[in-house]
Write a structure and sequence with these properties.
The chain has 3 helices and no strands. With 65 residues, it is mainly alpha-helical. It has a domain of 41 residues. The two termini are 20 Å apart.
């Protein structure tokens, strides 16, 4: 598993993940499961890997020379 998430992308994913996950406590009814998608944002930010970037060859990580 090659890391493909850069530092800025990582910070944005974690902040967005926490925001989306907090909707779990705000939403009522059947839409609560959508807020659990925040866990995916948080996990991809923590492990620096996004599986959706692979098929497109995207990497926001800067290469060290």
């Amino acid at each position: 598993m090659k890391k493909n998430v850069g530092q800025l992308d990582r910070i944005i994913r974690i902040i967005l993940g926490v925001a989306v996950l907090s909707l779990f406590f705000i939403l009522e009814g059947g839409l609560k499961w959508i807020s659990l998608l925040g866990i995916i944002f948080i996990l991809t930010g923590i492990i620096n890997f996004c599986p959706l970037y692979l098929p497109f060859g995207i990497s926001t990580r800067k290469l060290k020379k």
